[in-house]
Please model this.
Amino acid sequence: MSKVIISTLYNSDVFTMACRQFDKAADAINLPEAIRDRTKYPRRTFAVALPIRRDDGSVTVFEGYRVQHNLSTGPAKGGIRFHQGVTIGEVAALSMWMSWKCSLVGLPYGGAKGGVIVNPSQLSEGELERLSRRYMQEMIPFIGPHVDVPAPDMGTNEKIMGWMMDTYSNHIGHIVPGIVTGKPLALGGSQGRREATGAGVAYLVKKYLADLKIPIEKATVAIQGFGNVGSETAAALENYGAKIIAISDHTAAFYNAKGINIQKALAYVRSQKVLHNFDGGEEITNAKLLELKCTVLVPAALERVITHENAPRLKCRILAEAANGPTTNQADKIIDTRDDIEVIPDVLCNSGGVIVSYFEWCQNLQNFYWSRDEVLQKLFVILDRAKDSVELQKRKFKFSRRLAALTLGIQRVADAKAARGLFP
Ligand code: NAD
Model:
């Protein structure tokens, strides 16, 4: 008889959501009681205080987390989020999804996630550097290239990864590029990593459009979030010939039936940092963007934006989940009953990021570097394989695509835990 201590540590809507997804998948594959809860709950969690000197001489203490959900299948792997809304429960949920994602696409990794409660746009460059370095400093005893390998997520980028790598390397006494992925090329970053998540999203969208026999030149796309993932997805889909009719960030959303010029939007964001006052389309709300009539809807910002309220009103043919956890459990149930929407679930859809992070780590460990073409070619091979296995699982058991993807991911982690014994 297995007993679980139900902790309140991770209490939050998003953690509950990840647990419900897990429970449903575990029921679907009859995961034995003895393995269930230790596959579900995070293995270990760190909370750290991060004092930094502000530019005006004062000191502010920020709070940061790292949740290592699973270390049974390889070093833990997952991004670090800098956002004012970060909670330990959110980080835990994101760490669970990393486990299932890495497992689904066959990477030799566990799952982790990190976060700091901070609005990075309110820090100067120097303050951001001190915070990033301090976070890494506090994590040094708990991570390593064979223990846990962080990467960028919302609010963090390659410059921050470079500072973190440098902090770790100074501590060790020699350069250790494999401690983080998503670094600048000059510090051992991989060709193709910056665009990897968006390139993967766009590649899968192209494949699913082909399955639906919709020519990509006829596809219209609405994208929420214009950061790393949203903007790279937009650029790659535009390259494939699709028309991007709406984009947004946290400051504004824009619609243009004739198609938004993505290069112009990218140049605008490079100079202005945000989309506010962009003149490439009519201004709409982020809520309206999600309900636009389009072929492909791409949430690429926060979790839980597709809810039971807007799910019945979605007018897309494909919902491509570039963000992690954009669809609530209730919305998922509604979408399951709608034959007119194909969901590409997050653990498959945005896996391009961690796949190329894996390539970066392999290159760092070998000190042998690959070309961009080689990276993207290898990425697409893994995505094709993962898509095929999800479609097979979906057909074989009559699962939804999300359930197919999650059951595949969860089963492998559970198998590894069962094979290793009780400790890992
Ligand atoms: P980012 O910080 O580069 O960009 C986030 C974007 O979302 C920004 O444009 C921001 O303005 C926008 N945004 C924030 N709040 C918003 C709101 N309330 N409404 C509309 N837009 C809002 O982050 P990112 O790396 O592009 O990550 C985006 C999502 O993709 C996250 O869910 C992340 O977990 C997921 N993801 C990222 C990667 C990666 O490699 N970076 C990999 C897999 C998944």
Observations:
- The two ends are 20 Å apart (CA to CA).
- Residues 225 and 249 are 5 Å apart (CA to CA).
- Residues 41-187 form a domain with the Rossmann fold fold (CATH 3.40.50.10860).
- The pocket of nicotinamide-adenine-dinucleotide is lined by residues 152-155, 197, 224-230, 248-250, 286, 300-302, 322-324, 350, 353 (CB under 6 Å).
